């Protein structure tokens, strides 16, 4: 999930963006790759068959790096923290945040502040090293001390429910219109279970 590994022929996304942003005469750039795809599983080998460096996965779901570009390329307010919050007691987890429209982010774990961070140098994210403790991880972005956005990630329990979310409620009955349905496995409280690997059958 972190923007730290790169193929030998490329650069990290943050490094590329910094190069681009410092040169206002450049008319545009090209991101390789927008979507993961089958082929070029570098640095992995068989049985891995897909690339992993896209901004979105094989199904088109945004990956964490997507929000770095969104925070830099768009005017829409962004606050995105990651990774998920299902780990083992004793683990220390690097928690990153991408954000815009703010000058700082404060991170809380179960209501306790873990400190306020601001971007430094060429970094396009802020980071905390957090000893894992089950519960709620909350980030608050602030501009001049005023709250801009809040995001929470909760530790999920055991898989308990299947949730279906359609991207639209009506389709044209013309044999070609589509609705895409996102299938999520959640715990009894509706929290997404990030490591669920239950087999789901459709008919």
Describe the structure concisely for a colleague.
With 203 residues, this protein is mostly beta strands. It has 2 helices and 9 strands; from the N terminus they run ααβββββββββ. The model has no long low-confidence stretch (mean pLDDT 93).
Explain the overall architecture.
By secondary structure, the chain is mainly beta. Helices cover 9% and strands 29% of the residues. It contains two helices and nine strands. The chain has helices spanning 13-21, 64-73, and strands spanning 79-82, 92-99, 104-109, 112-117, 126-131, 136-143, 146-154, 161-166, 181-186. The chain has a four-stranded antiparallel sheet with strand order 4-3-6-7, with no helix packed on it. β3 and β4 (112-117) form a beta hairpin. The model has no long low-confidence stretch (mean pLDDT 93).
Approximate strand percentage: 25-35%
Largest sheet: 4 strands, antiparallel
Roughly how much helix do the residues carry, as a percent range? under 10%
Helical run tally:
2
- State the end-to-end distance: 33 Å
For the biggest β-sheet, the strand order reads 4-3-6-7
From the structure provided, what is the oligomeric state, counting identical versus distinct chains? single chain
Rounded radius of gyration (Å) = 19 Å
| Weakly predicted, low-confidence segments | none
Shape: globular
Total strands: the figure is 9
Secondary-structure content class = mainly beta
